[in-house]
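ok so i was messing around last nite and threw this chain in just to see what happens. nothing serious, just curious
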Amino acid sequence: MLYLWVKALHVLSVIAWMAGMFYLPRLFVYHTQVARGSEAAQKFMVMEEKLLRVIMNPAMIATWVFGIALVIIDPGLLSQGWLHTKLLAVLGMTGLHMAFARWRRQLAAGTSDRSERFFRLINEAPTLLLVVIVVMVVVKPF
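result:
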């Protein structure tokens, strides 16, 4: 029964994390469309910082904690090939999360050289990683 509760908490934290991973780069797109130092730019900076600090960072940490707990409860998971691919994709998602945090700091400092087009393209990366993760967990192809 403990395994199912931890799994439920893991899924909930993943949902919260992914909501932020989908929304933050969209905020970056809008942020690049306004003048630096403008009232709108200030509003985007507050929204981006709060999304990252209040929702995304805790959700990412919780996702990792509950995921590790699942493996501790059922170490046999480590022998399944699908988990290795899922973990690789989750590491990619974590790296992307860190990149988002860096780009947020650059936008806030006015030192970002990233374009609206760049953020529109990078906005698709979490979706691609999520597809891999979900297919690995649900289909378990190997």
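not much to say yet. The first helix runs from residue 2 to 32.
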